[in-house]
Automatic annotation (TrEMBL):
Transmembrane segments: none annotated. The lineage of its organism: Bacteria, Bacillati, Actinomycetota, Actinomycetes, Pseudonocardiales. Residues 71-278 form the Endonuclease/exonuclease/phosphatase domain. This is Endonuclease/exonuclease/phosphatase family protein. GO terms for molecular function: endonuclease activity. Keywords: Endonuclease, Hydrolase, Nuclease, Signal. Residues 1-25 form the signal peptide.
Length: 296
C-alpha cells in the first residue's frame, strides 16, 4: 500500500473517532443526563388562563401603631418584582393606590394599569374616613387588565358595623377585561367583633357578590382582603362563603377567595421587611378547564 493510501486510511479513521465522540457527548448532555431540572418560571410566567392575585394590607393611615411610612414603597417593589395581574389593597390612603397603579403599569408589558378606590366612612361624622395626612382612607384595587367597557367600579359601606369603632368598613368591586370579563373585589372586615365581621362577610357574598354574579351571568370572580375571620378551616369563615368557593390565606387574617371557575395553583406569603404588620399574600389561581377563562 502506498504512503498516500495509508495516510488516507488514518485520516478516515480519525474522522470516525471524532464523530463518535461528538455523538456520545451530545447524548450525555441530553435531557436524561441526570443534571438539575429546569427551574420554575420567573415572576409573571404562569399557566395560560391563570390569575395572580397580590393581597396587601399597608397600614398606611398614619394613625395605627403599625404605621412606618415605608409600606407603599415596599409594596411597589413587590409589585415590580412579582408582576401580579391583580392587587387588592387594605388600609391605604387614596394616593397609595395611584402609586401602585403606576408601579404596575411601569412593570408589565404594554405599560398600562387601572385602579379603583373606596373610602371607609367615619361613623361619627358621616364623611369619608381620613388618613393623618388628610387623604381619604380605605381600600383599593389595581389591575393590569383594563376595566370592562361601559362598566365602573362599585363600592359601598356595610349595613352592619361595630358601633364602638368610628371606622365603618367598606367593599369595592371592579369588572376587568381579560379574555373574558372577570370581577375583582376587595374588603377589610371589622376586626373588633367577630360577629360583626361575620355579618359583613355574609352580606358581601350573599348580597353584593350574588347580585353581581346574577347580573354578569356568573362571570368568574376573585376577592382579596383582610377578612378577620381566621384561617381557612375557621367555621366563621366557611359559613359565609358560597358553596364551591376556593380559598387561600396567610394563616389567619388575609384571604384570597375565588368562584368555582378557579382552583388554587399556588400560594405564598411575602415578607415586607417590617414596613407593615401584615405579609403580602400572593396567590395563583388556575382555570378549572372546560370553558374559556381569563388569560394573560
Amino acid at each position: 500500500m502506498s504512503d498516500r493510501s495509508v495516510r488516507g486510511l488514518w485520516v478516515a479513521l480519525l474522522a470516525c473517532v471524532v464523530a463518535c465522540l461528538a455523538g456520545c457527548a451530545a447524548t450525555t448532555a441530553g435531557p436524561d443526563a441526570g443534571g438539575p431540572p429546569p427551574g420554575p418560571p420567573g415572576p409573571g410566567v404562569v399557566q395560560a388562563g391563570s390569575v395572580r392575585v397580590l393581597q396587601l394590607n399597608l397600614c398606611s393611615s398614619g394613625i395605627a401603631g403599625c404605621y412606618t411610612g415605608r409600606s407603599t414603597a415596599e409594596a411597589a417593589a413587590v409589585v415590580r418584582a412579582e408582576l401580579p395581574d391583580l392587587v387588592t389593597l387594605n388600609e391605604v390612603c387614596q394616593d397609595d393606590v395611584s402609586s401602585l397603579e403606576r408601579a404596575l403599569a411601569d412593570a408589565v408589558p404594554g405599560g398600562t394599569a387601572v385602579s379603583a378606590f373606596q373610602a371607609a366612612r367615619n361613623g361619627r361624622t358621616g364623611e369619608a374616613y381620613r388618613c393623618r395626612n388628610g387623604q381619604q382612607y380605605g381600600i383599593g384595587l389595581v389591575s393590569r387588565w383594563p376595566s370592562v367597557p361601559g362598566s365602573s367600579a362599585g363600592g359601598g359601606i356595610y349595613p352592619a358595623q361595630d358601633e364602638e369603632d368610628p371606622e365603618e368598613r367598606a367593599w369595592l368591586c371592579l369588572d376587568v377585561a381579560a379574555d373574558r370579563a372577570v370581577a375583582v373585589c376587595t374588603t377589610h372586615l371589622a376586626y373588633t367583633q367577630r360577629e360583626v365581621a361575620g355579618a359583613q362577610c355574609r352580606y358581601l357574598f350573599g348580597t353584593v357578590i350574588a347580585d353581581m354574579r346574577a347580573r354578569d351571568g356568573a362571570a368568574p370572580l376573585v376577592l382579596g382582603g383582610d377578612l378577620n375571620l381566621g384561617s381557612g378551616d375557621s367555621a366563621d369563615l366557611r359559613s359565609c362563603l358560597p358553596a364551591g368557593s376556593v380559598l387561600a390565606d396567610d394563616g389567619g387574617q388575609q384571604h384570597v377567595v375565588a368562584t368555582p371557575e378557579f382552583v388554587v395553583a399556588g400560594s405564598r406569603t411575602i415578607d415586607l421587611r417590617g414596613a407593615t404588620d401584615h405579609p403580602g399574600l400572593l396567590v395563583t389561581l388556575a382555570p378549572t378547564g372546560g370553558r374559556p377563562e381569563p388569560g394573560r
